[in-house]
Design brief:
The protein is mainly alpha-helical and 168 residues long. It has helices at residues 6-14, 21-28, 34-49, 52-67, 73-86, 96-117, 121-141, 145-166.
Length: 168
């Protein structure tokens, strides 16, 4: 079993994979790079083609990651096929911080698709490029900007919920 660096382990914790433990994180670390790597390729293709259809499709794929913790389309492809070829474990369900990140990506990719559709290619490229950069960083370092942003947002939402519950 490959040992995982403390930085990679911490990055996976921030994505919500802390319940896997150190051995589990080391076991899944390589496989968890697959989804953002494929997403990066698809986004770059959409940017090169300046295609609202490709960018919209990738936005929908990201949305599946938000809605279905075990059903993100790229994860399903990996779990049903690719993992058998690579002799890798099935991906675990996607934790909330990483799903939050998928939501941010889906919004920005939808914005990119709309921008291309309405003849605003520079805005489409800018929005899509931010997501492509983020997914490239995730695929290479396991650091996830969206999961990092989830911490303060999640804490604020929890505080509002507690305040609302106290007022009932």
């Amino acid at each position: 079993m490959t040992e995982l660096s403390s930085l990679a382990s911490d990055n996976l914790d921030k994505q919500g994979f802390c319940s896997l433990g150190e051995e589990g994180k080391a076991r899944y670390a390589r496989s968890l790079r697959f989804t953002p790597a494929v997403a990066t390729v698809l986004i770059v293709m959409g940017l090169i083609l300046r295609s609202p259809i490709v960018m919209g499709s990738v936005a929908l794929i990201a949305l599946t990651g938000v809605l279905f913790p075990r059903g993100m389309l790229i994860d399903v492809v990996y779990n049903l096929g690719i993992r058998h070829i690579l002799r890798s474990p099935q991906l675990p369900p996607t934790p909330t911080p990483r799903r939050f990140s998928y939501g941010i990506s889906a919004l920005w990719l939808a914005g990119s698709a709309a921008s291309f559709h309405f003849g605003l290619p520079l805005l489409g490229i800018a929005l899509g490029a931010v997501v492509a950069i983020g997914s490239t960083v995730l695929a290479t370092t396991l650091w996830c900007l969206g999961s990092w942003l989830y911490r303060p947002v999640g804490a604020s939402v929890a505080a509002l919920k507690r305040k609302s519950d106290a007022g009932k």
